[in-house]
Task: structure prediction
Amino acid sequence: MRMRTTAVVGAAAVVTTLGPAGAVTAPAHASAGPAKAGDFNGDGRRDLVTASPGGTVAGRQEAGFVTVVYGGKTGPDKTHRQVITQDSPGIPGTPDDYNAFGGAVASADFDRDGYADLAVTAAGRPWRIVIVYGGAKGLTSRTTALTGPGAWNNPYLAVGDFDHDGGTDLASSVSGDTNALVLFRDVRDRAVPATAYPVQTKGDEVDAIDPIAGDFTGDGYTDLVVLVRSSIDGEPVEKRAELRRGSPSGLGAPTPVGSDIGRAAAAGDVNGDGRADLIAATGGGDGDRSDPPEGILVFLGTTSGLGTPKEFTQDTPGVPGVSEAWDGWGTVLAVGDVDGDHRADVAIGAPGEDVGRVQDAGAVTILRGAAGGLTVKGAQIFDQNTAHVPGVAETADAFGGGLSLADLTGDGRADLTTGAPVENREEGGLWVLRGAKTGVTTTGLRTLSPSDLGVAKRHAQLGRVLLP
Result:
């Protein structure tokens, strides 16, 4: 499909590669303390990050790049943006086929200077996590590279203070000859050594080891839930989760959370009790009628760990839609406070959802947080045929194939960013819907296309990977 875009009159786009970014106006520094994640120029507004690990750079396929759109008073400002590649100043390595720069992204103010920094993964030998430091004009050419043991397969990142020492730690994973979590403690403005925590798997092929950070017990230590998926001869043999508690020495021993889990998860405080809760996808299978419905499990945090889960599917009364094979309902998740009630809400992607007779057009469901946990009251669903949503639902757009819930306007409410990475022959696109007291609204909605961001015809798959 073709996305409708709004013309910008009297404003020239400011496009910078990584460096001084002198064309971007320097904002007043919002705080002398650590910045919130994603606020790279310290103006108090969250910036939008979309990564394209399958993107073309300098003729190299799947070299990968990251696009940053800086926040304005009404949300992401496409005239103020950066495209970061391994050709950018300060970034280690060079663009090469299958480097997949941007396979995962995370953010924190690692060096505690009042500007958030961006962590970006890059495959290759050696694999790297590149920390790109923020500054008054946005992301700079100052970087640090972290590396560790083993090789990567489907990298993921998680940020937290697992040892509760006031520093920011960064967790990732390796798989292959070594299957382990890798923890970098107190990342600041220097390389730090990695600590490996072995992960036991049943299969000889590890599909993913995915860390999800949150203080699930409320004791001040960030904990880590680890999703593990492995196969034997291509047949899945485990989809499970384990909890590793934070401690003064780092991560504790694993304890089981549940089985038939492992495609996606996210953390946030959905009941407002001060402890993080776990939202995890479950169900599904090979797509025949005997498979269980695709759904999500909500594990509330307790002082001793994670409680008994409550399940939601599209067959749950009050949840929009109907459970169908291959919808992928819950394979993409995001958590954030949409309505400003201090309870996290959950965005649930179904990139394979049929819209009317249009196959795999994709949709996003919003379920709201409440005192008792997640609720179906006020549930919403959005697709490209929803009134006032630009575009038209088309086959295999995969709307909802990437999600983020973050406050992009500075009004205290999380806004929904959803990607359709398969749109327009895998060019992709982004839709940003505002958060409001009544939930997600199409008022003030804006779209961002590859042309808007200067990455057209580069296989951007825009929206495939978003900063949470």
